Amino acid sequence: MSLSRINTSAATLTKNRTEGSITPSSGMCVTCVDGCIGMCEIGKSAYRGHEVIYPQPFGVITTASEKVYPVDYSHLNIMGGVVGAEGIEADSDKAVFPAVSLESSFGHDGGIKFRMPWVIPGIGSTNIAKNNWEGLAIGSALAGTGLTIGENVVGMDPQSVIKNGRVVDTVDLKNRVKLFMDHQRDGYGAIIVQANIEDTRLGVQEYAIEKLGVKWVELKWGQGAKNIGGEVKITSLEKAQLLKQRGYVVLPDPTDPTVIDAFNGGSFREFERHSRVGMVTEEAFAKRVEELREAGAQYISLKTGAYRPAALAQAIVYASKYGIDLLTVDGAGGGTGMSPWRMMNEWGVPPVELHSMTYAYAKRLADEGRHVPAIALAGGFTFEDQIFKALALGAPFVKIVGMARAPIAAAMVGKTIGRTIEQNQVPVYIARFGYTKDEIFVTAADLRHELGEKEFESLPTGALGLYTYYERLGQGLRQLMAGSRKFALEYMSRNDLASLTRECAEITDIPYVMDLDKEEVEEILKA
Fold first, then answer.
1. What's the structural domain count of the chain?
2. Nearest of 230, 17, 282 to residue 123 by alpha carbon
3. Does 247 map to a domain?
């Protein structure tokens, strides 16, 4: 059985002519007919070429792999019991699920505090991020979780002021940071500024620390969606030329007269802006960490992608050796921008395998008495059961999980609902709950009480959407944890899980469900 879909996908706006008869190895119609207009990916590539590499339509979508991995998080089940409680008195009147604490604290001084254990790990210069930032920033801040400003935001901002190759003022980055900070409550949550090669050359993180008051910055090696640098599409010739001037790789060359004529003539409508791939060395890594500390960074994290095991080992060792506060490990298969479609499907180590390696490497360092940084696992998480499994699989090293596509979806839905309310066109599916923010969003009454009338009324519905989605995740996670008798994150362990297949047990080292508790069962049966 093929694990991949080839030659046809909603992501590339392509389909087969003979939907029911497809050659598995190629994805082609069993009969490819002369005269077909080319609805499949091969056919579309015959007239749009490289444009078909990327998911479409750019700027209004997030995308993720369609590949079915041999093992995923559904191959693990959550275990519960009937005895005791950890983190609370074993009393049925006290050990109730609302009493579960979801707070997570980490960092070299324990100073990073999250109300709930997740972060949005790096969404940057894509339109989908920019157009939904208000909801993402305010919703994350109100919930007391983390939000990462991804790569290339400064370089992509036409209003950025750059002198002698360094940024001295911005509009977009300044606004993104301010939206979060203005709504942060009681010191919970964090806004993080990430940097790739181009950002580092522009001095983005130094600017964010010195001018915007950012305390946490992140080095980026990559992500689970692709093994090349960040990419976006540009519909303006002038902006494409500006980005090339700022040092980006822009295709085709927007300064070439032939290209300019072709663009103006309608031969193509979008330029591609690409970032460079990193060249990691320990010396350069150590130097950059020291530079950021000297610039005033209070916390430094590292985000790495679904690279081969040796690269993961490098990331963990460097994070340990140089005192990194958080290491985020992002499994293959998901993206929020313009990752090449086939690359997203066919590149990298899948989440369960990558996360199992992460635990194994971290445990080895811990067993040898070496420092292990706090770890975040990312790779397609959407709901509380997956969050529980990731925290348990990586316990005690994993403190939070990373999610991007799901929070963006929640913010987009909230924003769309707000638009329908303003236009008095609330869809029937939603109108059964009401026609106002207070009626539709189940968290509205509590937030109105907590924030006061004025602040609540100013909240964008995108933020309400994200906050309400997070509220659901929080309650769901508390229920799962209470069922496993774990009333705080620190008590979660790998023993809270069982593998449903032998293959999953071999990969994760989580026992097969039929092998679980064998010794304990034997003692109980003897009695």
1. 1
2. 230
3. yes
- The CA distance from 311 to 314, in Å, is 5
pLDDT at 338: 79
Ramachandran area for residue 186 (φ above 0: left; ψ -120 to 50: alpha; else beta):
left
The percent of residues in the chain predicted with pLDDT above 70, rounded, is 100
Token pair, residue 266, equals 């309608």
- Per-residue pLDDT reduced to its tens digit, 113-156: 999 999 999 888 888 888 999 999 999 999 999 999 999 999 99
In 192-340, which residue ranges form alpha helices assigned H by DSSP? 197-202, 204-212, 237-245, 257-264, 282-295, 309-321
Residue 254 covered by a domain:
yes
Domain containing residue 246: 231-274
Say which residue the tokens 């998911």 belong to.
Answer: 55
Alpha-carbon distance 148 to 382, whole Å?
17
To the nearest 10°, the Cα dihedral for 269, 275, 277, 282? -170
* 25, burial (CB in 10 Å: exposed 0-12, middle 13-18, buried 19+): exposed
The DSSP-derived string for 305-352 is -S--HHHHHHHHHHHHHTT-SEEEEE-TTEESS---HHHHHHSS--HH
Q: What pTM did the predictor assign?
A: 0.95
Within a domain: 152: no
Lowest mean pLDDT among 103-112, 119-128, 294-303, 484-493: 119-128
pLDDT, one tens digit per residue, over 29-52 is: 999 999 999 999 999 999 999 999
Torsion of CA 169, 171, 174, 175, to 10 degrees: 170
Q: Is 160 exposed, middle or buried (0-12, 13-18, 19+ CB in 10 A)?
A: buried
For residue 453, what are its two tokens? 């009338």
Question: Does residue 35 lie in a domain region?
Answer: no
Which of these, 17, 60, 24, lies nearest to 39 by C-alpha position?
17
**What tokens appear for 79 in the block?**
């275990």
> At 504, which helix (H) or strand (E)?
helix 502-508
